[in-house]
Design a protein that fits this description.
globular; about 220 residues; 8 helices; 5 strands
Length: about 220
Amino acid sequence: MAIISPTKSHQVFFNYRGEQLRHSFVSHLTDAFERHGINFIVDKYEQRGKDLKNIFARIEESSIALAIFSTRYPESSWCMDELVKMKKLADKGKIQVIPIFYKVSARDVRRQTGKFGDKFWNLARASITSGDQIKKWKEALECISGKMGLSLKNKSCEADFIKEIVKEVVRVIEAPELEEKDNHAEKKKRTHRSCLCELPHFKRSKTLTVFFFFFFSFLF
């Protein structure tokens, strides 16, 4: 069972096409996350019949999101709406989105071409949603696929790819902690340098006082 954190403490949200990847790639990836103690949330644990507001709340609780693009990803308006929400939060700096290209090219995702593009335009034509929402789908695809991500080609090893994803997520989780340590170390260095600068001044002042003491003692 997934480890679901009640807070935003490094929780990872999975955005993916369930019918294609739930019982294969994503299942193996969540197993790897559990072994490494990484908190995550996937929509298979949501109760059926709930609306997107519940999923959006889970996204807002997360600090990292994995957008796992695959050939069947754009079949789902649910996936697309989640992606729009993720982009909105990413633009505000509230979440870090890592694109994962599962046997699909970043170019096809960004430009909505190839098999990925065919699925997207089929969804757009069949969708009862507004043209404005379809525009937001396109903008989210272009934005998120343009970020630094990880790609799995058709003949690549999935086990090695999963290790790469885990390594990248751990790196993102640890980055703020390392930055805080570096800032603390730099602050200590500045404080130490400041003390060293003041020390010679103190010595000079003390020497000058001794000099005047002996000088005036000699005169009188």
